[in-house]
C-alpha cells in the first residue's frame, strides 16, 4: 500500500513540475512575441514609418516564432500554433505590400490568438475541471 502511494505521489509531482516548466516557457514566449507585435504596431503608427524598419521587425518576429514553435509544438496543439503561424504569414505579406491597415488588423488578431493559447493552456481550476 505504501509503495503504490509513494509511486502516485512521485507521478503527481513529476506532472506538476513538468507543467510548471512548460507553463513558464509558454507564458514567457507568448509575452515576448506579443511585446514584439505591439512594438511593430507602434512603429507602423509612427508618422515617419520606415518600411525597412518594419520589415526587419517582422523578420525578427518570424525568426523568434520559428524557434518557439519547435518547442511549443511538443505540448500545445498544432492547430492552435498554426493559427498564429498563418496570421504571421499574413502580417509578412501585408507589410511587403505596405498595406499597414490590414497589417494592424492582423497584429491585433495575432495578439488575440496568442492570449487565447496562453489562457487555454494555463494551469488553473477552470481548465482542469
SSE blueprint:
Blueprint: H1 2-45, H2 51-72, H3 78-96, H4 100-120, H5 125-128
Helix pairs in contact: 1-2, 1-4, 2-3, 3-4
What report would you give on this structure?
By secondary structure, this protein is an all-alpha fold. Helices cover 85% and strands 0% of the residues. Helix 1 (2-45) runs antiparallel to helix 2, helix 2 (51-72) packs antiparallel against helix 3 and helix 3 (78-96) packs antiparallel against helix 4. The longest helix is centred in the N-terminal third of the chain and has 44 residues, at 2-45.
Kindly state the number of beta strands.
0
Backbone shape: elongated
What share of residues is helical?
over 70%
Structural class: mainly alpha
Instruction: Return the string of H and E elements.
Output: HHHHH
Amino acid at each position: 500500500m505504501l509503495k503504490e502511494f509513494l509511486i502516485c505521489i512521485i507521478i503527481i509531482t513529476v506532472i506538476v513540475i513538468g507543467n510548471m516548466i512548460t507553463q513558464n516557457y509558454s507564458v514567457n514566449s507568448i509575452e515576448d512575441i506579443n511585446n514584439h507585435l505591439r512594438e511593430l504596431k507602434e512603429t507602423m503608427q509612427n508618422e515617419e514609418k520606415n518600411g525597412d524598419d518594419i520589415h526587419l521587425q517582422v523578420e525578427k518576429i518570424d525568426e523568434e516564432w520559428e524557434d518557439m514553435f519547435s518547442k511549443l509544438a511538443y505540448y500545445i496543439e498544432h492547430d492552435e500554433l498554426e493559427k498564429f503561424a498563418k496570421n504571421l504569414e499574413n502580417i509578412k505579406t501585408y507589410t511587403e505590400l505596405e498595406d499597414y491597415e490590414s497589417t494592424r488588423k492582423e497584429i491585433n488578431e495575432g495578439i488575440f490568438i496568442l492570449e487565447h493559447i496562453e489562457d487555454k493552456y494555463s494551469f488553473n481550476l477552470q481548465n482542469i475541471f
